[in-house]
Amino acid sequence: MMATLLGILVALALDRLLGEPRRGHPLVAFGALIEAVERRGYGDDRLRGALLLALLVLPFTALAALAAALPGGWVLEVVLLYLAVGWRSLGEHGRGIAGALQQGDLEAARDRVAFLVSRDTQDIDATQISKATVESVLENGNDAVFAPLFWFAVAGAPGVVAYRLVNTLDAMWGYRTDRYRHFGWAAARLDDGLNYLPARFTALAYALASGGWAGARRALDCWRRQGRVWKSPNAGPVMAAGAGALGVRLGGAAVYHGRLQPRPDLGQGPEAAPADIPRALTLLDRALGVWVLGLGLAGLLIHMIGS
Questions:
Q1: DSSP class of residue 87?
Q2: Farthest-apart Cα atoms in the chain, separation
Q3: Taking phi first (over 0 means left), then psi (-120 to 50 degrees means alpha), and beta for anything else, what does residue 257 get?
Q4: 147-173 and 46-68 are packed helices; what angle lies between their axes, rounded to 10 degrees?
Q5: 290 and 207 in contact (C-beta within 8 Å)?
Q6: What is the pLDDT of residues 66-107, one digit of tens each?
Q7: What pLDDT is stored for residue 238 in this prediction?
Q8: Rounded CA gap, 103 and 107, in Å?
Q9: What total of structural domains would you count in the chain?
Q10: Alpha carbon of 150 to those of 201, 212, 242, 276: distances in Å?
Q11: How far apart are CA 240 and CA 264, in angstroms?
Q12: In sequence order, what are the residues at sequence separation of 6 or more whose Cβ sits closer than 8 angstroms to the Cβ of residue 110?
């Protein structure tokens, strides 16, 4: 367990120092592969989507397991985790949007937030941009930071590779549209399953990182009351707890694929404002500290029990 914690710390340090590779990121290449497979193999049924998902995920997961078993495999595992984590990148995107809003440049803010969210962004105002960004920081805190760490701790390199590939497939196929409702069903359901525990640990970490008992209680209450009514069984608890910890209101109606979709409110307090974006990033950093401390304590406990 202590070796796992050391690997996590090294990977996080690499991400903080280097950020994502500017060229040749494996997930970008995997996204291009997904598009190619979809062009050749698309079919409007669940079985076809599930078979293509297995074809895309299982070989890379097996390769990660084989590579990790080689001499020096620990180094490769750390590199794979570094590539799977998007901690610094998420901060850069969030701060870029906040900076554009502070300068009154709505067009730049809309362009930047479009990289983070799937909703239509061409006509949204500063409040909607702020809400979308805070929601994305909180949700992607789980998808791009905490869940990869969780699966690395549970299953090493194969776990983190399988999770990140399934998560990428869900981001591309997991929509409830006519095209993907059946074809993307397996990707969406498997992503839900892989995120179930990490999302709840993330929600708990947001509550613990809120900075006081009042914030923690509010975060837990929002999680309990609001998390279950969100369309995603994992994003709901994460964003509700995060919004409660920050004392802001997220959610509300938004336009997706040209259609206005009603969404429940999440959190408590005033609607998110540009100043709440850096607050959300600070909450993410604090929650990450909670996770690292928790893993360290778990490793120490396991060592004490073993000895």
A1: H
A2: 61
A3: left
A4: 150
A5: no
A6: 999 999 899 999 999 999 999 999 999 999 999 999 999 999
A7: 98
A8: 11
A9: 1
A10: 9, 25, 19, 27
A11: 10
A12: 121, 122, 124, 129
**Cβ contact 80:157 at 8 Å:** yes
Q: Is the dihedral of CA 301, 200, 246, 96 positive or negative?
A: positive
How far apart CA 130 and CA 113 sit, in angstroms, is: 9
pLDDT in the model for residue 256: 85
Averaged pLDDT score across all residues of the chain: 94
155 is written with which tokens?
A: 């299953």
Residue span of the structural domain in which 197 resides: 2-306
pTM: 0.94
Stretch 283-297: mean pLDDT: 93
Residues 52-59, mean pLDDT to the nearest whole number: 98
**Token digits of residue 229:** 């009514």
- The answer to whether residues 223 and 239 touch, using CB atoms and an 8 Å cutoff, is no
Q: What angle do CA 150, 156, 160 make, to 5 degrees?
A: 60
Of 173, 150, 174, 177, give the one whose Cα is nearest residue 163. 150
Matching residue, tokens 């070989």 = 59
Q: Are 277 and 98 in contact (CB under 8 A)?
A: yes
- Residue 26 structure tokens: 């494996």
pLDDT band at 307 (very low <50, low <70, confident <90, very high): low
**pLDDT the model gives residue 98:** 97
Question: What average pLDDT does the segment 227-253 reach?
Answer: 96
How deeply is 232 buried, as exposed, middle or buried, from its count of CB atoms within 10 A (0-12, 13-18, 19+)? middle
Task: With a cut of 90, say whether residue 146 has pLDDT above it.
Answer: yes
pLDDT above 70 covers a percentage of the chain that reads 99
Q: Residues, the chain, total?
A: 307
Q: How far apart are CA 242 and CA 223, in angstroms?
A: 9
3-state secondary structure (DSSP) of residue 251: strand
**How many Å apart are CA 162 and CA 159, to the nearest integer?**
5
**Which two three-digit tokens encode residue 240?**
């509700």
Q: How far apart are CA 132 and CA 106, in angstroms?
A: 14
Measure the CA–CA gap between 35 and 292, rounded to whole angstroms: 36
